[in-house]
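sanity check this fold:
=====
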Amino acid sequence: MNRKELLIKEVENSPDFILQEVWDFLQFLKAKYQQDKLEMSVISESSLQKDWLQPEEDEAWQNL
């Protein structure tokens, strides 16, 4: 049984008050993951920006 199936089985056997907490936590994790992805993009962009502005980079990409 995979994790999703195990989780579904647990959800089916859990009372509503626990499901509310699980729902809240799942929403928190999804939001955190999205925020982490956004922060990583910003960090990557700022660290690579100096390379993107180099003439060598323009030459390397002009044939694509």
About this structure: The chain has one domain: 3-61. Helices lie at 3-12, 16-52, 55-61. The chain has a mean pLDDT of 86. Residues 16-52 form the longest helix (37 residues).
